[in-house]
């Protein structure tokens, strides 16, 4: 998978970080495939990366969901797989995710699947894009709404 991204060092670093999360048992890297092609991915974290959520609902967390082919059920399938792991294997009480205020299509999907706004404050999604060698390319600081689904 990394080899297929030879011209995209930031993407290579991102995938390595997801793999490291899985290797450390802090989460699971989920990849959707159709006809031999990767069509989506996310990382499911055992605990939220946001301290305020860990102190409150302490959900498992879907992080950076990407469905590369829109409106074909890929995002839904990835979310359902994440929910099954969180509820059945990890016995987590809830699952959540952050969604940008400008991402209405994603919010619509999440709400259709039973996610509701968390009662706490909005979260600030801080993350960095890094080159393959780990050099920071860009820093993000995105305000988001947090959505939860309890099991």
Structure description:
The protein is an alpha+beta fold and 151 residues long. The protein has a single domain (9-150), classed as Aminopeptidase, CATH 3.40.630. It is built from four helices and seven strands; from the N terminus they run αββαβαβαβββ. It has helices at residues 9-23, 51-54, 74-89, 104-112; strands spanning 27-34, 37-45, 60-67, 94-100, 116-117, 123-130, 136-150. Strands 1, 2, 3, 4, 5, 6 and 7 form a seven-stranded mixed β-sheet that branches. The protein starts with 8 loop residues before the first helix and ends with a strand. 28% of the residues are buried. Mean pLDDT is 89; it is low at 2-6.
Describe the structure in brief.
By secondary structure, the protein is an alpha+beta fold. The chain has helices at about 10-25, 50-55, 75-90, 105-110, and strands spanning about 25-35, 35-45, 60-65, 95-100, 115, 125-130, 135-150.
Could you name the key traits of this structure?
151 residues, alpha+beta, Aminopeptidase, seven-stranded mixed beta sheet, 4 helices, globular
């Amino acid at each position: 998978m990394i080899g297929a991204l030879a011209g995209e060092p930031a993407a290579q670093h991102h995938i390595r970080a997801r793999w490291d999360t899985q290797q450390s048992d802090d989460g699971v890297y989920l990849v959707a495939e159709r006809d031999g092609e990767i069509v989506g991915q996310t990382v499911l974290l055992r605990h939220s990366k946001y301290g305020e959520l860990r102190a409150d609902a302490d959900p498992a967390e879907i992080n950076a969901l990407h469905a590369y082919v829109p409106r074909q059920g890929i995002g839904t399938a990835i979310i359902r797989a994440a929910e099954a792991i969180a509820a059945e294997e990890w016995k987590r009480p809830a699952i959540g995710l952050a969604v940008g205020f400008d991402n209405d299509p994603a919010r619509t999907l999440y709400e259709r699947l039973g996610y509701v706004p968390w009662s706490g404050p909005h979260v600030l999604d801080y993350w960095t894009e890094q080159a393959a060698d780990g050099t920071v390319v860009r820093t993000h600081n995105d305000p988001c709404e947090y959505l939860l689904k309890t099991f």
